[in-house]
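Sanity check

After download, print the first record. It should look like this:
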Amino acid sequence: MSYNVRMFNYYHWSTDSHLDDKAFEFIKRESPDVLSLQEFYQSPDISFKYPHQYIKTKSKSNKFGQAIYSKFPIINSGSLDFKNSANNVIYADIVKDKDTIRIYNIHLESLKINPNKEHFGEQSSEKLIGRLSSAFQKQASQAQEFIDHEKGWKGKKIICGDFNNTAFSWVYKQIKAGKKDAFIEAGRGFGKTFNYTFPLRIDFILVDPEMDINSFETFDIRYSDHFPILAYVQLP
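Expected structure tokens:
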């Protein structure tokens, strides 16, 4: 499962004071073997009962970041530590039976557009275009940094996360090269993963071509501005 949890409502973007509990209970109920979270907030009130985990926050005092939880042993983990960005890529090498699979948790640069507050009129268009251009450049640089790192791993791998861009984008096409998209293999409908007027699919699970996707689901729950995605992956 991959899920951008929007910091479990830490900044109260929703007036529902129980939103963090609802998100936690949902994940607990689905109980995925491997859980990849973006915009994670490390809170003592949110405690997943997984035997293995890798959590990477921006600093010891800053409890925001990304997390990978696993029911299988994690024998190695790390972080790319993007410069001048709140976003990042982390990874964990998990062991299932005789296989070692690297799980990449990707969170590319945000476009920082709030559809409820943005004004798309002529007066603000130049400022908006400048901001988007800067974000796209950062995404491209981050995607290349990930691809360079990925080349150093010769084993099996699963890539998931919030790309902050669609399946029509350059960054998606570069990262997806040589892989299967779980939604394309077994998903239905538009695959909308971001709570916006248009059906934007910006969260992905990508696997090696030798792996099979037995099923894929996007959950229409409103505990974040993203919808969680879940794939059942069969190893070769």
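If your output differs, re-run the checksum step. Summary of this record's structure: The chain has one domain: 2-234.
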